[in-house]
Amino acid sequence: MGRMSRRAFALAALSTLATAPRAAAGGAGSGASAAMRGVWIATVVNRDWPSRPGLTANAQRKELIAHLDRAVRDRLNTVILQVRPTADALWPSPYEPWSEYLTGTQGKHPGWDPLGTAVAEAHARGLQLHAWFNPYRIANHADPGRLAASHPARKHPGWVVPYGGRLYYDPGLPEVRAFVQRAILDAVARYPVDAVHFDDYFYPYPVAGQTFDDDDAYDRHGGAFSGRAAWRRDNVDRLVQETAAGIKRVRPGTRFGISPFGVWRNASSDARGSDTQAGVETYDDMHADTRKWVRNHWIDYIVPQLYWHLGNAAADYAKLVEWWAGVAEGTRTHLYVGEALYRAGAAGQPAAWRDPVELSRHLTLAAKHPQVRGHVFFAAKDLAADRIGAMARVVADHYPGPAKPPR
């Protein structure tokens, strides 16, 4: 960035039924309110972009622009770009190293500014750019010695918890929470992103036979709580509330959204829960009280990952849409639905996902619930491939024209 201030840089960067289609909310001619039509672009392990590490800056830029252009062609209005996949950065962060998914070497300058370019190019196409941050994941391996020498996890080994063959920051340490927020808010200060976005990783998904070792943090900070689970949920609550406040302070008008695993709690665990038999519950396993965040309007939008088909025995898409609509009803938190485009036509999936109309049926059903204000599709690589034409069917049935993104 040279000597340009963050503020100056921010200002410079950019001042239906399947057989009887009908316009979805926000579609052409509908006269309805704006609707979310989004796609995630995952950078972790080069899932969607860049296609591999080590491409030239020009090749990376061309691939990114191709994803943006594809979003426009499919009449989407929002891209959710993963810019902090593993405690690293896709912008020139003073806090964390450049991501290895750009060059193949963590900390190596890629020769351009991916986030700055993404914001400018998305806005030039009428797309919103939501910057997607993973708060606590450090690495998809368990060797701190493989991290860049400058990595904060190497400078502060007491912040790090190895678990399930990976490295995580300890959410129970106030200094970790403060650091994570500084790293995130640096990007918000530099660039006119339309939203900050978290995914489903808070405390990690449980690994059988392993314990997340936060004993020291709990001994120091957990005394006021009834037990470790309540303390962990409070840690995540604090991250959410403090991040929301920080965003409003640094760039007022920027939204804050979260995309959790789709089941808060099964009804067998809590009468307020969904009619599901999911093996994971965010409240108990990731210590993320996602229902509370919606009801208390701590976040501007939520995108539960409802990655199941209609009629799924353990987690039926229809039942979960209805449950989440009930949670969002009467709140100011927007509800969008996360859709499993990646399953459509993929090997090993149930028969429902081999039907190109399955996803279109999802949108038809969701349209019966006024609380659902749109959908986000996982993910960009699958949008481009569209193996069995499932996304083409969604566009034909539900997106007859462009729609304004929600604000």
Automatic annotation (TrEMBL):
Domain of life of the organism encoding this protein: Bacteria
Database matches in InterPro entries: Divisome_Glycosyl_Hydrolase, GH, GHL10, TAT_signal
Residues spanning the signal sequence: 1-25
Annotated Glycosyl hydrolase-like domain residues: 36-347
Keywords, in A-Z order: Signal
Pfam families cross-referenced by the UniProt entry: GHL10 (PF02638)
KW Flavoprotein (keyword) present: no
Protein name according to UniProt: Family 10 glycosylhydrolase
Native organism taxonomy: Bacteria, Bacillati, Actinomycetota, Actinomycetes, Kitasatosporales
